[in-house]
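ok so heres the complex, two chains, lmk if somethin looks off
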Amino acid sequence: MLTRTRITLSALVAGAMLAALTALAEPAPAKPNTATAAPQAPTVAKQKSASTADHSKFKELDKDFKTGPEVTEACLICHNEAAKQVQHTKHWTWESVDPKTGQKRGKKNIINNYCTSPISNEKDCMACHAGYGWKDSSFDFTVEKNVDCLVCHDTTGTYRKLPGDAGHPVYVRREFPPGSGKFVEAVDLKKVAQNIGKPSRTNCGSCHFFGAGANGAKHGDLSSSLQHPDKYLDVHMDEKGLNFSCATCHSTSSHQVSGSRYNVAAAVTGPAHIRGKVDTSNPASCQSCHGNKPHPAKMSRLNDHTNKIACQTCHIPEYARDNIGTERSWDWSQATVMGPDGKPFVRKDSAGRRAFDSKKGAWVWESYVIPEYRWFNGVSKFKVIGDKIDPSKTVQINEVGGSPNDPDSRIWPTNVHRGKQPYDKVNLTLTLQHTGGEDDTALWHNYDWQKAITAGMKAGGLPYSGQYGFVDTEQTWPITHMVAPKGDALTCVQCHDSKTGGRLKNVKGIYMPGRGDNNQLLDKAGWALALLTLLGVLAHGAGRIYMSYRKG
Amino acid sequence: MSEKIYVFKRFERFWHWSQATLIIFMLITGFEVHGSYHLFGFGQAVNLHTISAWTLIGLWVFAIFWHFTTGEWKQYIPTLDKVIAMIKFYSVGIFIHAPHPFKATQLKKHNPLQRLAYLGVLLFIGPLLWTSGWFYLFFGDWSVWGVDKYVSLEWVAFFHTAGAFMMLLFLIAHVYLTTAGHTPTSHIKAMITGWEEVD
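and the predicted structre for the whole thing:
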């Protein structure tokens, strides 16, 4: 009997030893160190171009161009596929189809939470269209000479497109904004054409930093501070360091720019991209360079987070990390409110940012904003023109997809922008309004909502009941720019905090140690039993002491 | 007159005290990770807890080897002999200075209740903590192991915490019962010097 027990126990012990030794030999999971794709020496702006062509020597460009399309025609003599390529991009079509749902999004189709919609306002809005002449719905998207090459390829910094010109650059010196006393010079198209190059941060930023009509207003993680960023603001774009351009991450092929707000790669897994390896995933993701296990062995615990948390959650601790800030809300219902003298007025906040304008309503700005965190799987369903809304609830301009149990979802930092927009009280749709322009129906000219909505709805082909109200709206942007240096990333306790619940306190469906997610029954029972045991042994001990005194 | 016998060998004493230190330290850091209080800071508590866990695993490898080669594992074979006598002693006899019903020898160094308690720690609390702790430690590999569909961190944490509470209860009772030897300090002295005073 004893022998049998001994054999069984020996086997058990030997098994346990083997297991323990195996564990010691391999103490931690494999952590391929994919973090460091050696950064190339930054190309300084003034450095001689690496191009094999000097455009200033081409006779095709040595002429006094009168218009943008004339320049494009010259470009297309050599780059004869370029316009066709551009015409397949969102920069040209302002349309993006959701590959999963088939929904047509893009600026042309959605209503956003800022300027709402370009429909009927094309002359103004198309200052940011990579084309010339889109002034109304009659625009012909097949005309190649209307592609604007220069807005992305100008290296002189002198190419300007202003609202009102339907995407044409400034041909004649003019005062802008009207009545401001500031003048914008006519663009020297020959000079610009002879000095073209690869897009820089300034090119992309000329539109993307100033979305919604003010610096930093729209995205929160994009503003003109990224033109000359320091390391604190963006570890990759740091002008004195890695000095990335936008296209370093948004790598582009056939003019098709990778990475999109509409189709976000929310849950990238697997190792980093390798040269020559066929890889169709989005190169504009953190993982495309860093892989999915980027932290070194001694911080391997952090790698365990990557199947639940986007890199951005820890590495972008705040957005709008500059004094420019970003807009947190836009209340259109305040538009057309006049000053005491009955005249339109503007007001700025204490930091000099627009706070009120009789044309556009009221804004609230903020800098160094702590994001709101949500599950996100990369799919957003947008409100497109004509979609029905429920005015009793806050209208979600985009419904962010994702859930805790979905393997393609991660916890993302988001910029939630709140607003108030006009809607049709009978047809229950968000309205289109004609805002820009000098005509009688333009809101910014006549301050008449009824006329502006009537004109906007007509231009968009939507029915309008004639009754409008204002509804609360909300738009959610995932945050991905302004990546902080590692020293500024979130620390453990900023999320694993039982006192406050931490940064992720509103993120449900996940158990996080140290957040107070504990089983309350177990905690109460455990501590109660521990206390009882303690009291029990103390009483026992006291009894012994008492008895020995009595005896003594 | 009392006599002294050599009960705990040098490795045994080393193992006991280093294990005791590690377990107490892991209780302190573990309950901080659990969110019960703030002491080292969450990240630091996780690191210290993890380092302690690996150290304890190393210690156990040696201890298992030692018990196996010396045959000392037999000390944990349970017996019901004198269990009733021990319970009577702790509940009555100890108050009236009745003689201790168990006399430790080098071959039987634990009283029957100790044997049962330690076996319980070895076969129940230990494996509960080790298994759940192992899952906790390798959270990032669940999908590689193919267990992520069946295991949730919530339940791993539940069992790990339950094990920790049991270990805490054991610790409290154990520390107190070290004073319940032939004299209040005889057990403690034995675990320090190796020599136990017996009647």
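quick notes: The CA atoms of residues 345 and 358 of chain A lie 6 Å apart. thats all i got rn
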